[in-house]
Design goal:
CATH topology of the largest domain: Rossmann fold
CATH architecture of the largest domain: 3-Layer(aba) Sandwich
Number of helices: 19
CATH class of the largest domain: Alpha Beta
Helix content: 40-55%
Distance between the termini: 27 Å
CATH superfamily of the largest domain: 3-Deoxy-D-manno-octulosonic-acid transferase, N-terminal domain
Number of strands: 14
Length: 455
């Protein structure tokens, strides 16, 4: 690694540690998880972990397999990989790290006896050294995008193979890496291997110096939705008379965009509630495809649930939160999904989903889970985080792209009302999800081969 560049970078990460502590304290007020075990972020482990650590083990397959999943999406991808890893490495012991509170909470579900979960160490030489010395992992697996210069250098110095799995690298990331090539190129080049999701990801990773060894596909295609949740959602949908359209994993600003697009369809002098509450008779033609639709909105981040409720109620809409009912009420305009871990239920409940993060310039959220649940998707123009999956979904008939939310509303509501087209889109979504599976098994096999080569 370029020594001067790394020293300058290390001085910067060391100097901002007080700012990081203050940021964590502020975030902990809204999300208490950020106040948990803060010392771990700096390589300090006061709780008695020693009893869980290997004692002079020479069997690399019995040492920790370290997986870093920074946030919620990466943790869910890691869950898919971990299932295969545990099958291919019997008795595997997991060291699981995260950067966000939602990732850590989700990761708790993945732990088995003998596993350890801690925060990712802040990328200073000291914190990284303490982390690696304490846990001595046999291998490090970074999920999707997380490459940190001191972490890479620390593993290189200790002979710990460090790989980037399910790797995605869009044009924006490549432009940013090239601007900081003096730091990014040695960091990516210091990896042992990168296993890309797509050929396009692989080409961009190679352009910044990453050792791409294979293109193995996207782990998220291997997700198996909770069948009970999907069936529960479908059963609830069958009890209602209105089509259900979901705004899925909406990001900040998108609910306001949705309201603005909807207001364009409100007749003069009518409130949004008056329009949305229309119950269209079986032989009547609605004024707009969105008349009488039951809306379901699920914000991406739980700390925004209250904010979104206030926004919707301020527009005169009747809102009911998922946490308050055992059965979805039929006399409200918007169901607000305020629960965690129930996306399969929401996709089962919906006829069609508008993909959050794709209408504001945020890169889009994962559409694969929707497809696996048989829920067709309407995409906005911004899907750079999942470009390949978005293109393939549109080509397969599992998704369609629109220029903005106004067009998205018409497309989603129109599809939800057309039973023949909707049935075809649902079948296409299920086929699309099934046709791209297999990345988890291939990635786990690559990990095993790498470990075995070091025995």
């Amino acid at each position: 690694m370029a020594t001067l560049a790394l020293r300058l970078y290390s001085a910067l990460t060391w100097s901002v540690q007080p700012l990081l502590r203050r940021k964590l304290a502020r975030r902990a007020r809204a999300e208490p998880g950020y106040g948990k075990a803060v010392g771990e972020r700096f390589g300090r482990y006061p709780r008695p972990i020693e009893s869980l650590l290997m004692q002079n083990s020479t069997d690399l397959l019995r040492s920790f397999v370290w997986v870093h999943a920074v946030s919620l999406g990466e943790t869910r991808a890691a869950a898919i990989l971990l299932q295969e890893l545990r099958e291919q490495i019997p008795g595997m012991r997991l060291l699981l790290t995260h950067g966000t509170a939602t990732g850590r909470k989700e990761g708790e579900k993945l732990l088995q006896p003998g596993d350890v979960q801690v925060w990712q160490p802040w990328d200073t030489p000291g914190a990284v050294a303490r982390f690696l010395a304490r846990f001595r992992p046999a291998i490090g697996i970074l999920m999707e995008t997380e490459v940190w210069p001191n972490l890479v250098e620390g593993c290189r110095q200790r002979g710990i193979p460090l790989v980037l799995a399910n790797a995605r690298f869009n044009d924006k990331s490549l432009r940013k890496a090239r601007r900081m090539h003096w730091l990014a190129r040695p960091a990516y080049g210091g990896l042992t291997a990168a296993w890309a999701q797509t050929e396009a990801d692989a080409a961009r990773l190679r352009a910044i110096g990453a050792p791409v060894k294979a293109v193995l596909g996207n782990l998220k295609f291997d997700v198996v939705p909770d069948a009970a949740q999907v069936e529960q959602g479908r059963a609830w949908r069958a009890t209602g008379t209105r089509p259900v359209v979901l705004l899925a994993s909406s990001r900040e600003g998108e609910e306001a965009m949705w309201l603005d697009a909807l207001k364009q369809k409100w007749p003069p002098g009518q409130s949004g509630q008056a329009l949305l509450a229309i119950k269209t008779e079986a032989n009547a033609v609605p004024e707009t495809a969105c008349a009488g639709v039951q809306w379901l909105i699920v914000p991406r981040h739980p700390q925004r649930f209250d904010e979104v409720q206030q926004l919707l109620q301020g527009a005169g809409l009747r809102v009911s939160r998922r946490s308050t009912w055992a059965l979805p009420p039929q006399d409200v305009d918007v169901w607000l999904g305020d629960s965690l871990g129930e996306m399969a239920l929401y996709y089962g409940l919906a006829d069609v989903a508008l993909l959050g993060g794709s209408f504001a310039p945020l890169g889009g959220q994962n559409l694969i889970e929707a497809a696996a649940c048989g829920c067709p998707v309407v995409l906005g123009p911004h899907t750079f985080n999942f470009a390949d999956a978005a293109e393939k979904a549109c080509a397969a008939g599992a998704a369609q792209r629109v220029a903005g939310l106004a067009q998205g509303l018409e497309a989603a509501c129109g599809l939800a009302r057309d039973s023949a087209r909707l049935g075809q889109a649902r079948d296409a979504a299920l086929r699309f999800a099934a046709d791209h599976r297999g990345a988890a098994r291939a990635t786990a096999a690559a990990v095993v081969r790498l470990l075995s080569s070091r025995r």
